[in-house]
Amino acid sequence: MLVEMIDLTGLPINKTLDVQDRCWAERVYRDTTDKLIFAEHEPVYTAGVAAGQNLELLKKCFKKPLWDLPCQYIITQRGGLATYQGPGILSVYCVFKIPDFNPQKFNDILLSSAEEVLNFFDISSRRGVKNPGLYIGEDKKIVSVGLKYSRGVTRFGMALSVEPDPFYLRSLIPCGFEGVRLTSLKEEVGRELDDLERVTIRAILLLKISELFEKITRSD
């Protein structure tokens, strides 16, 4: 099954979301190919629909008042609460047509593909029970997921923490869970990643997501 990869690294998040929405509309109305969009944005915290509709819920995701955060925050249409999606965070947007959408199955696809990346770096992880994502140990989160599904096509996807600036992570309480912090591949392997490793991460995600997506569409 053909999945087209688009790399928007460096594009501001608002423009990236515009591209995603355009791809979504083309997939809905013109039956174009499924798209996997990779992006790294300017420093920005993003929140899902639930946090956007509940200010108290949003406040629980940060250690500082919203007006005192070190960068902007925006409300998006995805599921989930708040996370950081700035430089060093690989954001993965999935624009896939799925007639019989099962959110658990699609989350499994995303998390399984991220687990392949962590395995490549010999990092063991576990899946969150109350809060979907991948964790290292009890208190370190490394992958966040959040989707939107409408008119038979998905949007948004996951964020993999590769090598973000820790300065922006200190203000964050990932998805409002006290005692949990965002870690990174760089922190876990104890060194800088090289360019080949950064390319390999994208290649693993593209191949694994495409492979697993094809399996569920065939089985359905």
From TrEMBL:
Designated name of the protein: Octanoyltransferase
Family per similarity comment: Belongs to the LipB family.
Site annotation Lowers pKa of active site Cys: residues: 141
GO molecular function, one term: lipoyl(octanoyl) transferase activity
Lineage: Bacteria, Candidatus Giovannoniibacteriota
Positions of the catalytic residues: 175
Xref: PROSITE patterns: BPL_LPL_CATALYTIC
Catalyzed chemical reaction(s): octanoyl-[ACP] + L-lysyl-[protein] = N(6)-octanoyl-L-lysyl-[protein] + holo-[ACP] + H(+)
GO biological process: protein lipoylation
Role, per record: Catalyzes the transfer of endogenously produced octanoic acid from octanoyl-acyl-carrier-protein onto the lipoyl domains of lipoate-dependent enzymes. Lipoyl-ACP can also act as a substrate although octanoyl-ACP is likely to be the physiological substrate.
Species this protein is from: Candidatus Giovannonibacteria bacterium GW2011_GWA2_44_13b
Xref: Pfam families: LplA-B_cat (PF21948)
Class in the EC hierarchy, top level: transferase
Residues annotated as domain BPL/LPL catalytic: 30-217
PANTHER family: LIPOYLTRANSFERASE 2, MITOCHONDRIAL-RELATED (PTHR10993:SF7), OCTANOYLTRANSFERASE (PTHR10993)
